[in-house]
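For reproducibility, we list the full input for the pyridoxal-5'-phosphate complex.
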Amino acid sequence: MEKRTKPILVTRSSLPPYEEFAEMIRPIWDTAWLTNMGDYHKELERQLKAYMGIDNLVLFVNGHMALEMAIQALELTGEVITTPFTFASTTHAIVRNNLTPVFCDINPEDYTMDADKIEALITEKTSAIIPVHVYGNFCQVDRIEEIAKKHHLKVIYDAAHTFGETYRGKSAGAYGDASIFSFHATKVFNTIEGGAVAFREEWMDHRLNCLKNFGIVDQDHVVWVGGNAKMNEFQAVMGICNLRHVDQEIEKRRLVTERYLERLEGTKGLKLPHVQKDVKPNYAYFPVVFDGFACSRDEMWRYLGEHQIFARKYFYPLTNEFQCYEGHFTSQTTPVAKYIGDRVMTLPLYADLALRDVDEICSLILGRA
Ligand SMILES: *Cc1c(COP(=O)(O)O)cnc(C)c1O
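The corresponding predicted structure, in tokenized form, follows.
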């Protein structure tokens, strides 16, 4: 096969037509209002609530700060049950709030937290569960809610991968006490950098808005030890523009995903993703587990790289294997996550990925089968 000159990266950011963005930022030069909950910020908040069909949502500068501040708003203490099969953000947000993550293993079907293993990890110090809808796969939300109710625990979903999805017709933002979204450039819907907390109870609205603006309530009152996590007007404009096109983008991702499935289905030693029952998917990722394939995940990752195809070992290493947590946590307590993390790779997937490029990637993989 000819060596390609242009690399294919694992993802490529969605951008609206340039004129659309340019036209919308023009008025900012008249108002000179750049940040601090301006008109575009309010408008994007309104549109996102409508898009998700939910009542409560607060925007943030990114998904990570959304998670940190959801944790602070709910005043979690002690231990938090979570998953190591995720992006660094989930575990770091817990640790940076002086809480102790307790790692629950994942299930080998959809890689979300194994709900059957949660209760054994609950102690008198446990205050919450922070599961992740990893790759856009919904957690066992009913089981998790039942357990949380029984033990009086809060639930915050890391829904960073779940934008635009529904489970039984309800948006990902409608589950748990709160769900956090990431609108990072690499996600299905982006505001360049950005994020949001969706939540069940209305009182959180005021608290989250205070927390993201230094805890300031008004000129005379600072009532929370807050930080700075406000989304600015340029980010909000990018969001408003991208939101107009996100459904088409998801549809294009579907075509890419189906092409991968068509080409790779039935190959010995490859475990492919599938859409869960009752879920409307967003086709955010295409994770493949190399288990019993002719070569290992790492060999395939290198081989694709030699052909200018840059897949990612997502999620490897597990967060409980990070160097910064050495001596504190270990992946020995989560053997399924360890097994999957050592074998999984996400293939390039974005709306504008050409189907002939998908074919090329699949041919390379099948050539090693
Ligand atoms: C992207 C991501 C985050 C963090 O979001 P940012 O917007 O990049 O801060 C958190 N959790 C998961 C699972 C993610 O993929």
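The chain has eleven helices and 15 strands. The mean pLDDT is 97. Both points were considered when choosing residues for closer inspection.
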